[in-house]
Amino acid sequence: DVLIHCAYDSSPNNMKNNINGTIAISEAAKNNKQIFISSFSAHNENATDYGMVKTTLEKYFLNEGHVIIRPGLVVGSGGLFLRIYNLMKKFPILPLLDGGKGLLPILCIKDLEVSISKIIKKYDNGIYNLFNDNYITLYNLLSEIRKKTKLKIIFVSIPSQIILISVIVLEKFGIRLPISNDTIKGFVQNQRQTLKSDLKHFVEKEQDLSEMIAGVSNQ
Length: 219
Fold this sequence. Notes:
- By secondary structure, this protein is α/β, with parallel strands linked by helices.
- It has eight helices and ten strands.
- Helix 1 (15-28) runs parallel beside helix 2 and helix 6 (160-172) packs antiparallel against helix 7.
């Protein structure tokens, strides 16, 4: 009934494959209703591979009259959130980009599910920004994870440029980390992005950060 595009190959130098592969799948399902899961990172200020892939594909799906969803950081037992959580479990000391002052939009996995369900039933095209109205700081996110999971972890403030250079050097030697240099660059560049959320059109009450993390930690 509907094709939801979630696939993304995060291996290096795969921009063409991500763009051409997604378009090929879309064209093969031409007459079906389609939803493209884009990103808060899909904007011209985000020069990462991920951001440029999402921006390019947004233009394609918009021209084809399909639905585009831009979620914030999805808080659930998977994806980038789970990689962050696993890092916190593994290391007693964690570097905090620029003291954790950077802002990011968040979204509960359950609110995303409800929103997608309603979009499938009621909407055939358009762009929908899905995340809580208020952005949170990276420090607040990590502190809440630490509090809810009772992890004993110390945060050390390090300039994002130093962390970025370190990750790039490690990747040059073939060492793949849970957080890539593309992710770090994207987070920094996303500080220039401001979007208004459409979440209130789909859920009666958004979940706050404490509720989200409590739900995940129970899993």
